[in-house]
Each structure stands twice: as structure tokens, then as C-alpha cells.
Write a structure and sequence with these properties.
CATH class of the largest domain: Alpha Beta
CATH superfamily of the largest domain: Leucine Aminopeptidase, subunit E, domain 1
Keywords: Glycosyltransferase, NAD, Nucleus, Transferase
Number of domains: 2
GO molecular function, one term: transcription corepressor activity
Strand order of the largest sheet: 3-4-2-5-6-1-7-12-11-8-10-9
Structural class: alpha/beta
Largest sheet: 12 strands, mixed
Strand content: 15-25%
Pfam family, one: Macro
Number of helices: 10
Number of strands: 12
Main location: nucleus
Domain Macro: 1-181, 200-378
Length: 378
């Protein structure tokens, strides 16, 4: 398990096209001849970057590359400084061990090269998926372990690695989500009854809507966003409840003082209280109070959850916020059924995004609450 304190690399699972990644280095999976218009990921990167990228490949690498090499070009019109192009072999069951070892090696080469260039962030597609036919059930572990091992063995400047899954690849999203949560569970960071899979449908993309949704396995108090959403109680006593207590400890006592001064009567379940972020890495915190789960009122409770998420998004937009981080609302002591939460939260954000012109916004769903974290993170 990589921790920010010990190794420095934080791993995110991002649901989007990799050509939208705003990082120092984007990794592209292509072919040995570096013909970038061949292959879905490579073609998308080429179209976004512009033809100059292909020209640079032709000029610098006229003989192409081997499966153990990377070609480095500028990012051109992409939101990155450089693109690392690599060419993986097709899957062959008879050589599975060697092929997976090569995958680990090429990821390590990318990280090592990026670190030497001073890069702080990389975005990887899911390497080997698609027409190369690598078994997708093995890819989360291989890619995660490659980054973890590099991070544990090197004092690199790299801080963030994003694994980017194309929105339509819902089965890959599911496999990565299951792997990350099961890893937390097996290492004792999650109770065994909290592991669930992501919804199989309705994964949003920036192209279809203005809001990009990320699943981040981390404590929400680490979120570097404009707005953090806190789940607390009607009285706004922030030291009651695991998520709220962790936010209070990270923000400092001033956040409780502001709640007391501005909201002496507390809030209802359909309202939010707004405070500054203080020592958190955000401008504001939105505090909300959800009702406990009641099976007899399940429909109205889930409707209220959708409504309060919508209120948060609308208020954030009014404040000019570009990014929000939500905990998994209703999990824990409120006992909302966790199988309903991914879809309910996703649909609330998606519907708001479809109905409003909220461009270039980012929404983080933080899938590991403070009580589970124990100072460690994916």
C-alpha cells in the first residue's frame, strides 16, 4: 500500500478520455512503427495533439521502437508537456509471464524517465486492454503494483499517477474499482462488508457533459479542490461522525467556530451550511445533514440525497467553484445500502451536468472515508 508520506505517489482512477488529461506526461499505447493513427487510444491522442506529433515521431524515430523502449515527443495541443509512446506485444497465453513482466518494465521505464525529466504527474491508459487482448482481470494489479514498487524504491518527484479509463469501458472500470477496494479490505483498511462494485452503466465523460467525475480512494480531507462536502449532523457539531471529525481535525477549530456563529440553530436535511476551508486544501466546505436510513421511507430518502447533491453543485457553481469532492454520502453509521449509492450519486451529478452549462468542472467521489484510512492511501 503506497502512502503519500512514505512514497509520494498518489494513484487515481479517472473516467475520461486520456486526451483530456492535464498532467506533465501522457502515456500513449501505439505500435512499433509509431503510426499514431492506428489504434483507438493513439488515434485519439493524435487528433487532439495535432499532426506535428506524428511529424516528430517520423523525424526522431524513423526506425520505430521496440517493446522495451519509449519514444518521447512534445504534447503540442494536449494539456501535457510530453507524450511517452510505447508499443506492447499482443497477448499470447504461451508467453503470458514474459508479456506481463514486460508490461511492468515499461511502466517502470515511463516513471523513471518522467522522474528524471522533473515531471510530477503522469496519465496512463489501461495498457494492454482492447485489441491487444490482455486479460483485464490482471491489469489492475499489474499496473498498480508497478507504480507502487517504483514509488517504494525511488525518491522521485512524481506525485500523481492517473489510470485513465475510457467512459465506455465499463467492465474495466468495474475491475479496477473492485481491485482497489479489495486491496484496502485485505490490508485491514476497509470493513469487509463495504466492498462493492461500480455501476455497470452510465459512466459520464467530459464530451457528453461539463462535469468530469473521478473516483478517488483517499481521505476527503486530502482533496485539493474548491469545495469539500462534509456529512455531519443537524446541530453542526463537527466532532460527531467519522468524516466530519476528520475534516474538523484537518481544518482546525475555526471551522467549528464559524458553524456556531453562522448557524446557531443548525440546518435541516435539505439545507447546507457553508464555511471557509481554513487549513484544508479548499476554499469552502459545504456541511450537510442526511437523515438515517429507513427502509419504509427509502424512496424519499434517496430523493433527498439526490436533491442535496444538486444543491451542492448549484451553490458551488454560483460561487465560481470548478471542483468539488464528495464523500460517499450515507455510508457508515447512516446505513444507506451501499449498492444504491454509486448509481444515486453518479446520476445526481450527471443529471445536473446535463441540465446546466457547467463547463470544465470536476467532481471527486472519495471512496475511502477518514475512519478507514489510517494515514494510508491508494
Amino acid at each position: 500500500m503506497t502512502s503519500r508520506e512514505n512514497a509520494g505517489i498518489k494513484i487515481n482512477l479517472t473516467i475520461d478520455s486520456i486526451s483530456n488529461a492535464s498532467v506533465d506526461v501522457i502515456v500513449n499505447s501505439t505500435n512499433k512503427q509509431l503510426q499514431l493513427n492506428d489504434g483507438s487510444i493513439s488515434k485519439f491522442i493524435l487528433n487532439a495533439a495535432g499532426p506535428e506529433m506524428q511529424d516528430e515521431c517520423n523525424q526522431k524515430y524513423p526506425q520505430g521502437i521496440s517493446t522495451f523502449k519509449i519514444a518521447i515527443t512534445k504534447g503540442y495541443n494536449l494539456k501535457c508537456k510530453n507524450v511517452f509512446h510505447l508499443a506492447l506485444p499482443s497477448w499470447d497465453e504461451n508467453y503470458s509471464h514474459l508479456i506481463l513482466a514486460n508490461l511492468t518494465q515499461i511502466i517502470t521505464i515511463c516513471l523513471y524517465t518522467a522522474g528524471r525529466m522533473g515531471a510530477k504527474s503522469l496519465a496512463f491508459p489501461i495498457l494492454g486492454a482492447g485489441k491487444l487482448r490482455y486479460p483485464i482481470e490482471q491489469l489492475p494489479g499489474i499496473m498498480y503494483e508497478a507504480v507502487k514498487n517504483y514509488s517504494n524504491q525511488n525518491s522521485s518527484q512524481i506525485k500523481v499517477v492517473n489510470f485513465v479509463v475510457y467512459p465506455q469501458d465499463t467492465e474495466i472500470v468495474k475491475k479496477f474499482h473492485e481491485y482497489l477496494l479489495n486491496r484496502q479490505k485485505n490490508e485491514g483498511l476497509l470493513p469487509r462488508d463495504t466492498v462493492s462494485s461500480t455501476p455497470k452503466t452510465n459512466v459520464t465523460s467530459r464530451e457528453n457533459a461539463g462535469i468530469k467525475i473521478n473516483l478517488t480512494i483517499d481521505s476527503i480531507s486530502n482533496a485539493f479542490v474548491d469545495v469539500i462536502v462534509n456529512s455531519t449532523n443537524k446541530q453542526l457539531q463537527l466532532n460527531d461522525g467519522s468524516i466530519s471529525k476528520f475534516i474538523l481535525n484537518a481544518a482546525g477549530p475555526e471551522i467549528q467556530d464559524e458553524c456556531n456563529q453562522k448557524y446557531p440553530q443548525g440546518i435541516s436535511t435539505s439545507e447546507i451550511a457553508i464555511t471557509k476551508g481554513y487549513n484544508l486544501k479548499c476554499d469552502n466546505v459545504f456541511h450537510l445533514a442526511l437523515p438515517d436510513w429507513d427502509e419504509n421511507s427509502s424512496h424519499s430518502i434517496l430523493a433527498n440525497l439526490t436533491e442535496i447533491i444538486t444543491i451542492c453543485l448549484k451553490k458551488a457553481e454560483e460561487l465560481g467553484a470548478k471542483s468539488l469532492a464528495f464523500p460517499i454520502l450515507g455510508a457508515g453509521i447512516l446505513k444507506y445500502p451501499i449498492e444504491n449509492l454509486p448509481r444515486t450519486m453518479y446520476e445526481a451529478v450527471k443529471n445536473y451536468s446535463n441540465q446546466n452549462s457547467s463547463q470544465d468542472q470536476r467532481c471527486l467521489l472519495c471512496g475511502l472515508s477518514s475512519r478507514h484510512r489510517n494515514s494510508k492511501e491508494i
